[in-house]
Amino acid sequence: MLKQNTNLKEVQSSLGSLISILPVSPNQWTLLSIVFALVAGMFIALNNDLVFGLAFFVIAAICDALDGAVARAKDQITPFGGFLDGVADRFVEATFLLSFMFYPLPTIYIFAPIWIAILVFMGSMPSFIRAYADHTGAITREKALALGGICERSERILILVTGLAVGLIYSMEFFVYAIILAALLSFVTCIQRIYQIKYSS
Fold it and tell me: In terms of C-beta distances under 8 Å and separation of at least 24 residues, what long-range contacts does 138-144 make, across chains too?
């Protein structure tokens, strides 16, 4: 896993160096990810068009992956840039999920939009716990940044993307099950982080 993460960072750094010649700042790349996410959400919510919706979400994800790489290539890493990137991440993920409230997903136990709302809430809680622990001084900033868990953002996105891919091939029930799984694992992550904070303070 560490080797894969290292390879991914190397690819991002190479792409960042390549596109850093464009007159687009790192923060502008971050904002572009929000714009493309909104366009993707409109395709899914208004037209029930998953193909174009997913295509634009992929573009949004690429912009999100490149902003940090461009910042490093241009030596423009700033605290505000990191802050804006984190906010954009939450916004893009929420837009992705909320757009499916308007898509005819199958009901599993309860109405699908309720599962989506639960995941939007639970998916934001691990980041909130980290930020609030740092803000209140419950743990040091270094320890807050080191907080882990079974289902952080990358794992959550992987679960959703995999569920959606299987859903497009077989049945969208698999996507709803992926939403339920991601929500449950996000809850477990919250418990893990609270436990870590309690015993590392």
Answer: 138/197, 138/201, 139/197, 139/200, 139/201, 143/200
Q: CA 82, CA 63: separation in Å to the nearest integer? A: 14
Tell me, yes or no, whether 133 and 199 share the same domain. yes
Give the pLDDT of the chain (201 residues) as one tens digit per residue.
434 445 545 656 666 565 665 666 778 888 888 999 999 988 988 888 888 888 888 888 888 777 777 777 766 677 777 778 778 888 888 888 888 888 888 888 888 888 989 888 888 888 888 888 777 877 777 777 777 777 787 788 888 888 888 888 888 889 899 999 999 999 988 988 888 887 775
In a domain, 8, yes or no: yes
Looking at the fold, whether 3 and 74 belong to one and the same domain comes out as yes
75: CATH: 1.20.120.1760
d(CA 193, CA 129): 7
3-state secondary structure of 152: coil
Total domains in the fold of the chain: 2
Write down the pTM of the prediction: 0.75
Cβ-proximal residues to 112 (8 Å cutoff; 6+ apart), any chain: 100, 101, 105, 106, 176, 179
Collapsing DSSP to helix, strand or coil, 104 comes out as: coil
Q: Which domain holds residue 119?
A: 104-201
**187 and 155 in a common domain:** yes
